[in-house]
Amino acid sequence: MPQVVGRQYKEILKQYLSSQSEEDLYVGQQFSRRFIEKDIAPEDVISIHKNALHDIVPDLRKEVWDSFDFLIEMMIHYGLTLREHQSLIRKQE
Amino acid sequence: MPQVVGRQYKEILKQYLSSQSEEDLYVGQQFSRRFIEKDIAPEDVISIHKNALHDIVPDLRKEVWDSFDFLIEMMIHYGLTLREHQSLIRKQE
């Protein structure tokens, strides 16, 4: 996954954390459409989020980062199911 | 989503955070299959994770919890795409 996506994600997240506005939350939701178009798997989103949060708030307890590794594992089957969907769609086209 | 799933998730996460073992990570991955079978959306997984982490490590900076709200929004389109997949599968059955 391109580093540029990670940088953009961090900027949008940072903006939301400082503004807490509905608009910035919406920017995030729209950004996620591009993630799907780029075939970025849900487990990769968690990983991008973990890295962005680590840059923004580095001094958190170890449990937080470990918990993200657990969440990444949880998302793997969701990612598999989505890829199955994409291959079904392509077959129908 | 049933509260029982949230409780089970918290126990498995807690176990992983204390053991850090590959086995407990694998338990999580297997547990996620059941989530998909129960039609639990990926955005709900983030929400379940947020609540579980809050019970395990409550005294974290506000940014952490706010960042989970952002991540939930990011997952909404993934959830929509998955539901589209499930309805396609059902049509083909």
Automatic annotation (TrEMBL), chains A, B:
Give TM regions.
none
Lineage: superkingdom: Bacteria
Q: What is this protein called?
A: PP2C family protein-serine/threonine phosphatase
What is the source species?
Sporosarcina contaminans
Lineage of the source organism? Answer: Bacteria, Bacillati, Bacillota, Bacilli, Bacillales
